[in-house]
Specification:
InterPro entries: ATPase_NBD, ROK, ROK_cs, WH-like_DNA-bd_sf, WH_DNA-bd_sf. By secondary structure, the protein is an alpha/beta fold. Helix content is 42%, strand content 20%. The radius of gyration is 22 Å and the shape is globular.
Length: 390
């Protein structure tokens, strides 16, 4: 992991301490008995893990008034002191940068947006540096040090090396983003794929909390998928696990920017939809809003384009469910603005593709603004701060 030296970290030096801290972070406040039940740790192991975390101020013990009123020794709940540390999360898109300041519980305290005027690494880093400086100034008002910076970028990202291998929407190749951003900001930096970062936030604080196996499918400029298997976010041996956008589902389909034909993204990504709507209607459609408006006005060609996109997404979800058998699939992303146009096709294609009882998988939608993607970046910084580097 490329980052500048840490001066302060959570004292979660053992797997048990890390497990206890993340369990309380996601599900707290919890009594020690509840912590033991959720982690399968003995009471002695829970006590051993909790003690240094409380001594350092990362965990605090409250008073359960109901327990106080009952007979016997009160079981006081333990919670994470969210104000103990602050983090900055940054989501970089092809058009803008979104940055948030969060506390240790990943609650957003301040959010900032800035439009990108250029996509080259130097220009993007300058914008990131400016936003980070603004948020560092905001952090002074909380009287707490910023302990880490998380950056989320679409594409092939090597989190361990801190390198963006390839980002199609930024046209980047082999950019050592963690090292560069660390030099610019002076903060410990974590860089991850944007969908994986959002998956971390959903696992700890969102619709995936408490679910050991789930998939997060994002629709929009790209089609992404974050995977959690047995409680761990899966990156794969080469860091590209979950790239369902590049499942080739139609050998005779359109050419994808990855070089293959008939990829889900080449059918259901924003650019593909805009291009196809322009072709079938003959109208000068230039963005998603115009394509969406045409479809909502009832244009049959535009509606067919969205129907085909829904079918592609549904088939991709079916493939994920067949291979991994998750308990839940969460659909999110800015493409949900068109969900009413392709919800039926997603559902039908998923049902047709899912094998046997896999069709019982809970498929749900969860609209999330881009601030939540930046929050996901902050969640990866919190992971690194705790000592969890997936």
């Amino acid at each position: 992991m490329h980052s500048s030296p840490r001066t302060d970290v959570v004292p979660a030096a053992t797997p048990a301490a890390s497990l206890v801290f993340t369990t309380v972070l996601s599900h707290g406040p919890l009594t020690r008995i509840e912590i033991g039940r959720r982690t399968a740790l003995s009471p002695a192991a829970v006590t051993k893990a909790v003690r240094p975390l409380m001594a350092a101020g990362y965990l605090v013990e409250g008073v359960d008034e109901e327990a106080r009123a009952s007979l016997g020794r009160p079981a006081n709940p333990v919670r994470v002191d969210g104000g103990r540390a602050l983090f900055i999360g940054v989501k970089v898109t092809g058009d803008e940068i979104i940055a948030v300041l969060t506390d240790l519980c990943c609650r957003i305290r301040v959010a900032r947006h800035v439009q990108l005027t250029a996509r080259d690494p130097g220009a993007v880093l300058a914008s990131i540096g400016g936003l980070v400086q603004e948020l560092l100034t905001e952090a002074e008002g909380f009287g707490v040090q910023v302990s880490g910076l998380g950056l989320a970028v679409s594409g092939d990202v090597d989190r361990v090396a801190g390198v963006v291998r390839y980002s199609p929407f930024l046209d980047w190749r082999d950019v050592p983003l963690a090292e560069l951003a660390g030099t610019v900001t002076g903060l410990p930096v974590t860089v991850d794929n944007d969908v994986r970062a959002l998956t971390v936030a959903e696992q700890w604080f969102g619709a995936g909390a408490g679910v050991s196996d789930f998939a997060l499918v994002t629709v929009g400029a790209g089609i992404g998928c974050g995977l959690v298997v047995h409680g761990r976010v899966v990156s794969g041996a080469h860091g590209v696990a979950g790239e369902i956008g590049h499942l080739s589902i139609d050998p005779l389909g359109p050419l994808c920017h990855c070089g293959n034909t008939g990829c889900v993204e080449a059918i259901a990504g924003d650019a593909a939809i805009i291009r196809r709507v322009r072709e079938v209607t003959g109208l000068p459609v230039t963005d998603s809003a115009q394509a969406l408006e045409l479809a909502h006005q009832g244009d049959p060609g535009a509606r067919e384009v969205y129907a085909r996109a829904g079918e592609a997404i549904g088939r991709a979800i079916g493939a994920v469910v067949n291979v991994l058998g998750p308990e839940r699939v969460i659909i999110s992303g800015e493409g949900l603005a068109a969900y009413d146009l392709f919800a039926e096709q997603i559902r039908d294609a998923f049902t047709a593709s899912a094998f046997g009882t896999a069709a019982q998988c809970d498929v749900m939608t969860r609209p999330l603004p881009f601030e939540e993607w930046a929050r996901g970046a902050a969640a990866t910084a919190i992971q690194s701060f705790i000592g969890i580097d997936t």
